[in-house]
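Same chain as my last thread, 220 residues:
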Amino acid sequence: MPASSVDALITDPPYASGGPTAAVRQQAPAVKYSSKKPSTLHHDFSGDHHDQRSHLRWLVLWLSECCRILKPGAAVCLFSDWRQLPLTTDALQMAGFTWRGIAVWDKTESVRPQLGRFRSQCEYIVWGSQGDMPLKRDVGVLPGVVRQVIKPADKFHLTGKPVAVMRHINQICRPGGLILDPFAGSGSTLVAAQMDNYPWIGCELSAHYHQIALERVQAL
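reply #2:
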């Protein structure tokens, strides 16, 4: 892809998380991320087995290439969980981006209750820009917390994000700007982009999830 050709990078890459030890992290995603063991609802996906150092290196490799193809001032938003949040903020900066903050997706009190512990009901959006980000971009003030329950009818991927959440996140892109999602999964970012008149480019290695994403976009 040509340099300086994309207006926003908005993506949900594999976290390589899901457990406190290397042995647990290297289990299949269908085992780590599903309440049913193993999941019978969604296919597995690749790239979620790295240890901390290899995951950091992997993030920096593809983020550096994305930094090249984003326009100056373009926005970048990366989903992360609490375990990989420090590593993700490091990778963003190591790849050449300016780190500007963290937004929160509050999945509500319906998820993962554990007696005697804080409920793990949030995921995080590490966001920044390719260099300076002018305030005058025809983009309004965006919420720092998006509260949205996970609805079964909107979940087509083991770790898929609701379209309603992605419609909020995509608004960081300038109106009509080109959005890139290099880990498109089942296509929630792309569906949200098409609903709000953003052109998009999506990449997905899994033929299974590529087909789902294609069908969802074509159904609009």
